[in-house]
Amino acid sequence: MHAVRYHGRGQVHVEQVDVPVPGDDEVLISLAFCGVCGSDVSEFEKGPLTAHIADVPHRVTGHTGPVTLGHEMSGYVVASPAGSGLPVGSLITSSGGVVCGECPQCMAGRPNLCRQYHVVGMHRDGGLAGYCTIPVRACVDTTPFGLSPSTAALAQPMAIALHALRRGDPPAGGRVAVVGAGGVGAFLVYGAAESGLDVLAIDVDEDRIALARRLGASSSSSAPAQGDAPFDVVYETSGTPQGLSTAVGLSGRGGRLVLVGIPAPGVGLDARDVALDELDVRGSVSLDPARDLPEALRVLATRTEGWADVAPTAFPLRDVAEEGLSRAAGRARIKTLFAPDLVEPCDTGRADALVVGRVRSR
Predict the structure, then answer these.
(1) CA distance to 45, 187, 300, per residue, from 194 (Å)
(2) Residue ranges of the chain with pLDDT lower than 50?
């Protein structure tokens, strides 16, 4: 099969590799779609950061580099262990992160902080390939939700957004601000609005501001205006110095701020602002597979007009570096999807038809 292999900074190549063999607790899936996220871009530009491409085996997975990228995926089950609840032929999605379910954090209901936490596409081979093996506990059958394969591939970033939404614990019918309406921020805007919250979206890109309105923001702008505060919760998703400054300003005295974007080392809040304004600052990272992933599928299914404005185009694997790992190309789309079935780029609707047609012709 073909796979997008990461060898280090600026080194991504489509290579021929063997189809993986699933372990006793794993499913083998034939990939429909796989997305690229900001962490993949950072690896390409500045890595290796999180990706394990060393000759020394990874402490949990045993993987040695290079690694096949991709953790936002959908695919059809080809092989599955008995009793998994994931029948052959079913369309599944993955949390991307794999947890043990047994450590103190997992037992306390915070599996995203699991001691054995590892990521498909970073610490073991991922979904930018023809096939991928994933532990059963990191997968959900999408069949009950009636999603297209391309929409199912958006479940992981939506789950990240919904996890962040829960971390903020906004009151029912409350008012929230989302700073940064690209990537996870766009999904957070939709998830917040779908739950009945009044949402202000802030972004420097006018196209993303317009998208935020379509996703349910009651108001959106490139900069906060006088009178925009107070908010019950402010979510910062950009990870930029400008975004952090804006988020603190919107929080107001005694406000609650949830940090979702990952800033560069050395970029952070002024502790004086936190102390003097008694800010309630919370971090949010990853997701709870058992709780957030099924909820993400439910929320995705509520948008009757679909998600083509968020993920308009699907590309073949050969275009990953140019169309997925380039920040310039990424700014034109919220999410970029890739499909091993494709030989040329096309809109996601047509790509869905090609993928489904291939599955039905087996």
Answers:
(1) 35, 10, 10
(2) none
138-157 exposure pattern, b = at least 16 Cβ within 10 A, e = fewer: bbbbbeebebbbbbbbbbbb
* CA distances from residue 290 to 68, 87, 97, 153, 155 in whole angstroms, order as listed: 25, 18, 11, 17, 13
* Spatial CA neighbour of 324 closest among 312, 311, 310, 338: 338
Q: Which domains does the chain have, with CATH numbers?
A: 2-154+307-360 (3.90.180.10), 158-283 (3.40.50.720)
Letter string b/e over residues 230-251, b meaning 16 or more CB atoms within 10 A of that residue's CB: ebbbbbbbbbbeebbebbbebb
Give the phi and the psi of residue 31 in degrees, each rounded to 5: -65, 135
**pTM greater than 0.85:** yes
For position 276, what pLDDT does the model report? 86
Task: State the Cα angle at 312 between 309 and 317, rounded to 5°.
Answer: 150
In degrees to the nearest 10, what's the CA dihedral of 119, 62, 53, 114? 30
